[in-house]
Amino acid sequence: MDRRSFLAALGCSAAAFPAATPMAFASLPGDRRLVVVVLRGAMDGLDVLQPYADPGLRALRPTLSVGPEGGAHDLDGRFALHDFGADLLPLWRAGELAFAHAVATPYRDGRSHFDGQDVLEAGTVGVPPSVGRAGWLNRLLGAMPGATGRDAIAVGRDDMLILRGPAPAGAWAPESRIALDGATADLLRHVHHDDPLLRPVVEDALRLSADGGPEQGGGADRLFAFAAGQLRGDARIAALSLGGWDTHRGQGSALRRPMGQLSAGLLRLRDDLGPLWARTMVLAVTEFGRTASENGNRGTDHGTGGAMMLAGGALRGGRIWTDWPGLAEADLLDRRDLRPTRDVRAYAAWALRDLFGVDRSVLEGTVFPGLEMGEDPRLTL
Amino acid sequence: MTPRAALAATRFGTGLSPVIPPPSDADDLLAALAGPDAVARALPHPGWDVRAAAALERDALRRQQRDGVAGAFEAFRAQTRRLNVTWQDDLVRMVLRGATTADGLRERLVWFWADHFTVASSRGASRMAMGGYHEDALRPRVAGRFADLLIAAVTHPAMLIYLDQVVSVGPNSRRGRNGRGLNENLAREVLELHTLGAGGPYAQADVRQLAELLTGLRVDRRGRLDFEPERAEPGAETVLGRSYGDRDPGIDEVRAVLSDLSIHPATASHICRKLAGHFLADVPPAGAVAAMEAAWRATDGDLMAVYAAMLDHPAAWAPERAKMRRPLEMIAAGLRALGRDDALLRADAQTKRRVVTRPMLQMGQDLPRPPGPQGWPDEAVAWATPQNFAARLDWALRAPGWTGEVPDPRAFAEAALGPLLADRTRFAAGAAESREEGVALVLTSPEFQRR
After folding, report:
1. Which residues contact B315 (CB under 8 A, 6 or more apart)?
2. Pick from B387, B427, B446: which is nearest to A198 by CB?
3. What is the ipTM of this complex?
């Protein structure tokens, strides 16, 4: 067979083969969208959202996090948004941005990023490691009858435990370009034609690579843009991660990049999702907070309680949910950390209840085993 | 080359090579495994003591930094980088042993057991020190008795650190009276993962009793195994109906319980199924597993006899290749098919990163950070994902050029696959627009991805 007749033959067989033209139907109830952003490295909630009305703050942080006088933007008379997040102020004013403060996962005592992220993404604690190795978004999919592998996608190179597990889910890094021209891509299909396992994989890889669009923008922006593209299609849930939050030194400048990326990413989602933004909620969560006092290097070390960020048109935003524990020495956890007053998983669970109508019993029993969701914060409009 | 030789080299070894002849059959595979470990001598690997010392040096610098010692922060950062570079060298050596060995079964077994007894990069002495653990504890024992392998792995400092044994204290021991307590992590995984298997014939009480028996095992300041009687739970413990530790507590009692576990029928069944599941098919043929279990029972877990039973079974030579190469295997087999020698070990750090470290990450097997103590997934479907495939394709397009001359795809297809080469791949290799693309089509073909 010469090259020309081979390509002609391939064209016929490709058209006759349905796997090459995949059809999928979103199967989660409603048409809501959820984006979970894992902020890796432990975001300093006390700096991103500064409790400047608490007199303890200035004493603990003589150079950091000192409220509007230091350039932060007052939100409600108690809390101020760090200036590196100023681009988000329009979202706040539109009621499309909110925070929960003094929250944490159940991870305590250890101060390992990896272990903390495992608890955050697994959504469990105290479960033997070899048993509880599925993420909570994966267990959500498993609890939704009819969920398909197209409903959720992990975006980026980072391993996303949050979506890993027995329920099928997608994963793609937008920089995974299959740099093959059309003829060579056809040869790739030809080589895999007889392998029932690899043939659909090759088709999916070629399709997702084409979805990545032309080379554009740098790392983080591209992740959010790709996530938005997938959410405009079949995907209902996207998970991605954003690093750079481990600010042990020179936090006053070290936060610029990750906060800028997160702000730009949220705005990218809003812009690219268009009308779907009104149906979308974004949860930005981190493995733990940082020490209440700054260290000797104008940074902060690994702590416990912190903040989570919520965004989206579906959000009842423009507010800060918190049972504020105070920053006086006696109020701190171990005289060191912001004391968490609510489980960060409770907000995630209420978000799943509101967005997808998941039963509280399923959320407390299956998705986040052992969680007490507590009072409904009414996250959505 | 006979089809059997090609299967011996791919299913049970690290692939075909244009310069190293394949083993012709099971006898060849076993003879090489019974002989000296030539590739370990050719590409020597520093042991645990060396790797642990470097990791502990980093901890010492961190303490100095916290104490405000001048220059400690920079030294700490430099040592952290050094550990990463050293691990990268260990990883490259791991790949190149696979790429250049004439004894591929041994390499595959080292990888299998390193996964069965998974240890992640962890705290203290075990940061990025996995290579030293593999070399000292596992590699010398892959062709011996399972009991010896089990004892070496479970009592190794790397394992004690990874599975939290170092913080476990007998509640009634002298140290336990200050409120420190028992940690069951290692005990649970020994029963669930290392020996009897999940759903095996043990109860929570056995986990608890084994955890108490393991108390006292710890790691000293130099990263070495140590036994501290002050933290050992006093009194006897009963595991699977048998009593241990009624004499003085000590490491001999730990060895005794592990020896007994190593010959338990449930252990034989669990591990034979896993070995056959790794080498033959995700759902291994029952006859092959039964033959391996019989060999295990007849020899009290002599691994050579178990491997021989697997290779002796007709299912070992079935033409259908049901398994996918995992990323480590894929990269080693790719360099081997290209005929690369060990030059990469002497290349600059960036080349090593491009050819090995980053692709491993992109293909989803970041070895220092396994998904958990159960190790990496082994089923073919776990690796047959679009993202993983794209990463393999990317490697296949670029790594050949980074490591040497890109061969003629038609000759490469024959060398890499021999009698396994399918017509579709042969055609594509010849029809590709460039050498790079032709070679990449061969390296990503189902015949090359599967074994």
Report:
1. B280, B281, B284, B285, B287, B288
2. B446
3. 0.90
Q: Are strands A319-321 and A97-104 parallel, antiparallel or unpaired?
A: parallel
Query: Residue A192: its chain B contacts at CB < 8 A?
Result: 445-446
Which CATH topology does A28-173+236-367 take?
Answer: Alkaline Phosphatase, subunit A (3.40.720)
Note whether A205 contacts B: Cβ–Cβ < 8 A: yes
- Residues B425 and B412: their CA atoms lie apart, in Å, by 11
What is the per-residue pLDDT for A27?
56
Interface of B with A in 52-71 (CB under 8 A): 68
How does strand A237-242 pair with strand A170-172?
unpaired
What's the whole-number mean pLDDT along residues B420-437?
Answer: 94
Confidence at residue B288, expressed as pLDDT on a 0 to 100 scale: 98
**Mean pLDDT of all residues belonging to chain B:** 95
pLDDT at A357 over 50: yes
Work out the pLDDT band at B115, boundaries 50, 70, 90: very high
Q: Which residue has the tokens 């809003």?
A: A270
Q: Answer whether B386 touches A (CB < 8 Å).
A: yes
**Nearest by Cα to B133 from B110, B156, B166, B161:** B156
Distance, in angstroms, between B37 CA and closest chain A CA? Answer: 33
Best interface-test mutation with B: which of A189, A201, A203 has the largest number of B CBs within 10 A? Answer: A201
CA–CA separation, B272 and A232 (whole Å): 47
pLDDT above 70 (res A127): no
Give, in degrees to the nearest 5, the angle at Cα B30 between B29 and B33.
Answer: 90
SS3 A171: strand
CB A183 to CB B433 under 8 A? yes
Domain boundaries, chain A: 28-173+236-367
Instruction: Tell me whether A164 touches chain B (CB under 8 Å).
Output: yes
Residue A181, pLDDT score = 77
**Rounded-to-10 torsion of CA B345, B348, B354, B356:** 20
**Percent of all residues in chain B with a pLDDT value above 70, rounded to a whole number:** 99
The amino acid sitting at A306 is G
Distance CA A202, CA A177 (A): 13
CA-CA distance, B422 to B445, in Å (whole number)?
9
Domain ranges of chain B: 161-262, 327-449
pLDDT at A7: 39
Q: Does B185 touch chain A (CB under 8 A)?
A: yes
Query: How many contacts (CB atoms, under 8 Å) link A and B?
Result: 113
Which helix (H) or strand (E) segment holds residue A16: the answer is helix A3-16
Cβ-nearest to A205 among B364, B390, B441: B390
Cα–Cα separations (whole angstroms), residue B48 to B54, B55, B127, B194, B375: 10, 10, 11, 21, 20
Structure confidence by residue, pLDDT tens digits, A142-153: 998 888 888 999
